[in-house]
């Protein structure tokens, strides 16, 4: 590339721009939601990770989305801060106002271009779509020189028309062109062919950055992303843990480590601080209440585990026999056994730093330390994952409902009875309830303390670590109308863990009630 990008200046041809859309596309996942404080925390962490662009949200969707994009633009330094907009005046105006405070701001405008979407979703003729592409990019340039345009459902758009659309977007001010596989339909060879075609056929293609955004409906998001890079894409749109609508997006940690590990093939560089990847993954899991599966590449707890005797023998002789990257390169540590009941506050703080927890409030650290001391009295050994679980519980922001105390009685001869103390918006509430078992009694008591219409859609319990003295990690999914939220809680007492998880999910539901959803939003 020889042109000067308005935000990045001269860009070497082997430099990949990492565009993170966790806070926008990722948050559209069913059950995922973040409040303003959590979005700011994620944005600061993404900046420390080294992402180049943060798509902070969709400002026209709701007042809450506008405010979150504005606060991120005003307070997060480093990455370009981007707001999404449809090709409509109000959308673009909202995005322009929201990113105004950013040192480097971008408007990402989009419209559908496939025959299916134009006919049934937009109900527009192709010529009208071209008019709106011209308008959207021209209007966006009134607010910023950094303008991205996306062809929604681009992978199913007729090639000749896609070329006309891209040419129109470039002619009217777009500096980045994104071709998304919106429904996860494409295959890698098709994605590579699309980008090769556009770079060869479209006038001005050498003066813009081409971007790829792939959904994972067929499990091909990462493969399609890497294929697009081979076709000439130099911006990758992705999310932490691959979260996103339906089956999700290309996972940032996977595409980054694929480029790094297979540098021999791709020859590409990113600005990502890869040892922060695990911490970033766990921060998102904490905020959303949704853990990654154990066998998830890079950040799953089994990603560097070896049980087969043959594999273990090979690893002991040479790590390269069965590991293509080092655990430390993505944030895993080789030791996890460091704390016990005699460990003090200084050791606890050092452990938090080693685990990648930064920017925690004094209140959060103190609360987590007190729970650590209580746990250490019950457990001989406190593992890293135990500490993570404690801190994750205490570092959540949307606590309108807080658990104060829980007492339980029950057994084979009597119905379970629970006495529960909670705070609701700072007001203490004391309730008691019985149920068909201790967990049912707890959930009924929470419902009495804070009446709601949500129903329990999922309840699961797993150990944080091994052994009979291990903490329990409980996941609760609540459903209310079309809303789904997941909550998590941990404690050495399984029932207390369940109460924490239910209250976490309930707090997330309260956040989601206040949020509006834009019509026909995807990309």
From TrEMBL:
The keyword Heme does not apply. Pfam families: HCS_D2, HMGL-like, LeuA_dimer. GO terms for biological process: L-leucine biosynthetic process. InterPro entries: 2-IPM_HCS-like (IPR050073), 2-isopropylmalate_synth_dimer (IPR013709), AIPM/Hcit_synth_CS (IPR002034), Aldolase_TIM (IPR013785), LeuA/HCS_post-cat (IPR054691), LeuA_allosteric_dom_sf (IPR036230), LeuA_bact_synth (IPR005671), PYR_CT (IPR000891). It catalyses: 3-methyl-2-oxobutanoate + acetyl-CoA + H2O = (2S)-2-isopropylmalate + CoA + H(+). PANTHER family: 2-ISOPROPYLMALATE SYNTHASE 1, CHLOROPLASTIC-RELATED, HOMOCITRATE SYNTHASE-RELATED. Homodimer. This is 2-isopropylmalate synthase. The gene is leuA.
């Amino acid at each position: 590339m020889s042109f000067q990008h308005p935000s990045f200046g001269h860009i070497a041809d082997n430099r990949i721009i990492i565009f993170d859309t966790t806070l926008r596309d990722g948050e559209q996942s069913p059950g995922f939601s973040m409040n303003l404080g959590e979005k700011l925390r994620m944005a600061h962490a993404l900046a420390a990770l080294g992402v180049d662009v943060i798509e902070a949200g969709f400002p026209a969707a709701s007042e809450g989305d506008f405010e979150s994009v504005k606060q991120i633009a005003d307070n997060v330094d480093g990455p370009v801060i981007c707001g999404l907009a449809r090709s409509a005046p109000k959308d673009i105006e909202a995005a322009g106002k929201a990113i105004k405070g950013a040192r480097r701001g971008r408007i990402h405008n989009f419209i559908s271009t496939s025959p299916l979407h134009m006919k049934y979703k937009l109900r527009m003729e192709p010529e009208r779509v071209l008019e709106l592409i011209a308008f959207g990019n021209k209007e966006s340039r009134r607010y910023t020189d950094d303008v991205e345009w996306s062809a929604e459902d681009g992978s199913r758009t007729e090639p000749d028309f896609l070329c006309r659309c891209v040419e129109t977007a470039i002619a009217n001010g777009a500096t980045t062109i994104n071709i998304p596989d919106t429904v996860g339909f494409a295959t890698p060879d098709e994605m590579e062919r699309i980008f090769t075609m556009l770079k060869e056929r479209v006038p001005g293609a050498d003066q813009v950055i081409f971007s790829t955004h792939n959904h994972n409906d067929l499990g091909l998001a990462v493969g399609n992303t890497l294929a697009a890079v081979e076709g000439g894409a130099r911006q990758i749109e992705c999310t932490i843990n691959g979260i996103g609508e339906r089956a999700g997006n290309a996972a940032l940690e996977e595409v980054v480590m694929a480029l790094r590990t297979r540098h021999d093939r791709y020859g590409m560089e990113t600005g990502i601080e890869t040892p922060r990847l695990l911490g970033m993954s766990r921060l998102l899991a904490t905020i959303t209440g949704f853990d990654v599966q154990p066998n998830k590449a890079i950040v799953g707890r089994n990603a560097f585990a070896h049980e087969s005797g043959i594999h273990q023998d090979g690893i002991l002789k040479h790590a390269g026999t069965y590991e293509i990257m080092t655990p430390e390169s993505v944030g895993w540590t080789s030791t996890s056994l460091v704390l016990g009941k005699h460990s003090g506050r200084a050791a606890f703080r050092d452990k938090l730093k080693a685990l990648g927890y930064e920017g925690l409030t004094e209140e959060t650290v103190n609360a987590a330390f007190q729970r650590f001391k209580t746990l250490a009295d019950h457990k001989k050994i406190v593992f890293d994952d135990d500490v993570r679980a404690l801190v994750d519980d205490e570092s959540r922001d949307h606590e309108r409902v807080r658990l104060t105390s829980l007492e339980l009685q029950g057994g084979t001869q009597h119905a379970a009875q629970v006495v529960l103390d909670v705070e609701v918006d700072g007001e203490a509430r004391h309730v008691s309830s019985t149920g068909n078992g201790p967990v049912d009694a707890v959930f009924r008591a929470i419902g009495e303390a804070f009446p709601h219409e949500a129903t329990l859609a999922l309840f699961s319990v797993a150990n944080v670590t091994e052994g009979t003295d291990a903490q329990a990690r409980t996941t609760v999914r609540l459903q209310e109308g079309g809303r789904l939220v997941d909550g998590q809680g941990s404690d050495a007492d399984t029932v207390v863990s369940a109460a924490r998880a239910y209250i976490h999910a309930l707090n997330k539901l309260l956040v989601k009630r206040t949020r509006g959803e834009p019509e026909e939003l995807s990309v």
